[in-house]
Design brief:
The protein contains no helices and ten strands. By secondary structure, it is an all-beta fold.
């Protein structure tokens, strides 16, 4: 199957998980089209503008991975703040918590993948 970029579902979410600003998502796979076969719920390219964030939240029954494509920011990894930049990967398994903030001057772009346990 080939999906043209122009056909991918786009979404903008305000204050995601209690964060600041908006996150823009381009869904690479869609739950509504059963493209996860019951194994996950998100595979998307995300953009956070400077100052925007995804709020601190806990994962229950799933795990989330961020792969940073460009920009820089900070991740709160279970209460520990760490700097992230292009090429970094953040993994948050079941039972753990995280947040992500764009602290840079350019867009923070990353791939997010959420798979069920």
């Amino acid at each position: 199957m080939l999906k043209k970029g122009s056909d991918l579902k786009r979404e903008v979410i305000q204050c995601l998980k209690g964060g600041k600003g908006e996150v823009e998502l381009i869904h690479l796979l869609e739950v509504d089209k059963n493209e996860f076969n019951g194994k996950g719920r998100l595979f998307a390219r995300n953009t956070l503008k400077p100052g925007a964030s995804i709020g601190f939240h806990k994962h229950e029954g799933d795990a989330e991975t961020y792969y940073i494509l460009s920009g820089e920011g900070t991740v709160n990894d279970n209460g520990t703040i760490k700097v992230v930049q292009a090429g970094d990967l953040v993994y948050t398994p079941h039972g753990e918590s995280h947040s992500l903030e764009n602290t840079g001057t350019t867009d923070l772009e990353f791939i997010a993948l959420i798979l069920f346990n």
